[in-house]
Amino acid sequence: MKKLGLLLVACFAFATLSVGQNSMVKNLERNVPGQGKVTIHQDARIAALIGTEAHVGTDEEKVIKSSGYRIQVYAGNNTRQAKNEAYSVASRIKERFPELTVYTSFNPPRWLCRAGDFRSIEEADAMMRQLRATGVFREVSIVKDQINIPL
Fold it and tell me: Where is the SPOR domain (predicted)?
């Protein structure tokens, strides 16, 4: 009898996992009249880890997260001056290369400014050479990062 119970629990667990997290979240968030409403707030990176679409940005642009390359243009410490410098570098990049997406973030213990979403290291290298050729950016290197690929 215990074996049958364990078998049923194992089958239920397998069925739940095979449905996937995305449909499980949608199932929880459905609005059923006469019952409470569940709202789930989760980071877009969680959806990316399981290979589903994620909404990133204010305009709800659909993107897929993938492994790729970005160009690191600035890395500072954890001071307010470093934060201001990271945002200053970001604005200078946007002025010279408006088509390039710029990411400024605090990754403890430092402020980072990275640019671009490149699938190959060759694409990243070509853009890195353009950034260096301006003579404005001192610290320019290619880093492996999780990138956003628009759908």
Answer: 63-145
- Tokens standing for 4? 């049958």
CA–CA distance, 87 with 106 (Å, rounded to integer): 11
Residues linked to residue 143 through DSSP beta bridges, in sequence order: 70
pLDDT reading at 6 higher than 60: no
Q: Model-level pTM?
A: 0.60
CB proximity list for 120: less than 8 A, separation 6 or greater:
68, 69
Alpha-carbon Rg for the chain, nearest whole angstrom, is 22
Name all domains of the chain by residue range, CATH numbers in brackets: 23-54 (no CATH), 63-150 (3.30.70.1070)
- Report the b/e string of 71-108 with b at 16+ CB within 10 A: bbbbbbeeeeebeebbeebbebbeeebeeebbbbeeee
| Per-residue pLDDT tens digits for 104-121 | 999 999 999 999 999 999
